[in-house]
Amino acid sequence: MSLSTDDVKRIAHLARIRVDEAEAAHYQTQLNGIFRLIEEMQAVDTAGIEPMAHARDLQQRLREDAVSEADRREAFQAIAPQVEAGLYLVPKVIE
Amino acid sequence: MQWETVIGLEVHTQLTTRSKIFSGASTEFGAAPNTQACAVDLALPGVLPVLNKGAVERAIRFGLAIGARLNRVNVFARKNYFYPDLPKGYQISQFELPIVEAGELPIQVGEGDKAVTKVIRITRAHLEEDAGKSLHEDFHGEDGKPLSGIDLNRAGTPLLEIVSEPDMRSAKEAVAYARALHTLVTWIGICDGNMQEGSFRVDANVSVRPKGSDKFGTRREIKNLNSFRFLEQAIEYEARWQIERIEDGHEIVQATVLFDPDTGETRMMRTKEEAHDYRYFPDPDLLPVKLDEPWIEQVRAALPELPQQKQARYQRDYGLSAYDAVTLTASREMADYFEATLAAAGVPAKLAANWVMGDLAAALNKEGLAIGQDRIPPARLAGLLKRVDDSTLSSKLAKEVFAAMWAGEGEADAIIEAKGLRQMSDTGEIERIVDEVLAAHPKSVEEFRAGKDKAFNALVGQVMKATRGKANPQQVNELLKKKLAG
Fold this sequence. Notes:
- The complex is a heterodimer of chains A (95) and B (486).
- Helix content of chain A is 40%, strand content 9%.
- Chain A contains three helices and three strands.
- In chain A, strands 2-3 form a two-stranded antiparallel sheet.
- Chain B contains 16 helices and 17 strands.
């Protein structure tokens, strides 16, 4: 499989990354290189092998259900661009 | 043409853990904005999620309660989208390997004695984190541009998203399923079920097709229904709308819609083309979750008797109808109350069931109280039932005693004594009154002898009146018949 410039632009849009035409062409070449690598790996017969969800064959450690975090709103909001009434302010979102 | 509605539900249940799914911040409802949003919830650089054992345990509880498959290895994935109440730019959820798959929940369809059981299949249930809340109030920047306020207290609250198969065929069935699910998750204590606070949120996938067709129509998804009434209204409106569109020659376009409770209508939010492409992939910050057998068995052993098990037992051991059994198991509190009353009274189960579902439920309803907040503890109601069962009280007198008990006047026997409500059983006394009534109403006696049955009822009424309702109506009937025949 290979990507078109439009695919690259769509992916960039979904990730909210601005790319111009030259960059889109550049990334298209790079991404298609990665796809060729994936194709090579897919040629390996993996029938009967359980897929791994993580590169390390370990299992998730679990935390006891207890509240351990104190309120640090003041410290966090001191570094926020804009706050009011305890809220973080962001450009208005309309869906 | 006859149409059929096809419905599947996705329900987001907020789990009852004290702390969040990936951080140690509190999940308590109603705190001041952002006072329960820690560095992990805010996605500050360098933080890592650590999974809450309590959330996993609750998912296991649910899986066992619906007879589902528990995936011994399940995996968290990132669901990518941008929204200001989601600081990481992705929601940690489960995608390819959810913790729970392929379960079932039986529901009752239809009313009263005609109710039948239908099994709704549950495709999957997966763990995920909730997002924060956006407040679109009147905030403005220095340049006058409108701003939204973000409260991240809810960000990271554990959710179990429960997805059903498209097995429901009417709004009523969808509501019955949602209610049964609500009963179950509160029953096993994994969710507080508070719909006003958003602890139990329902999305409905609705499509229509010609009756008898085995192909599904194109569906539209109604988002965020937070009451059973809205769920029913929204599905009914949506199904009607889809049928009209098709009959007018249009095609249904897959879309997400919102329900407006003020107008009772659904309106489009976005079409499939505008839908998010979430680009799921396994979250490298979290390792696969493994469930071991001893843990699963420990959770199983701690499960209470489930509503569906109780329903079966009530029908089998107590001879109650399916409808009664479902009504009595609408909540764990209700079932506990019924069982405690029955145990203390030692009367036929149907009598106890009728009082719990009837007079008690009505009295609670009237004052907007839930069972458990009632004024009459089970042992006290049992005292009343005993007096109904041994015929000390007629049903009319029993209602009077109940009202007095509800008003806080104490035990049934004390009320009966104090108010002189005991049903008259002294035959001599009743006989005397019957004679008096017959003497005072010669016209009715004549009419009865002339073949007018109505006259007999009038005489019974007079006796009951004279005894202020305390005579046993059956006894009065017999005595009157005897005397009139003689």
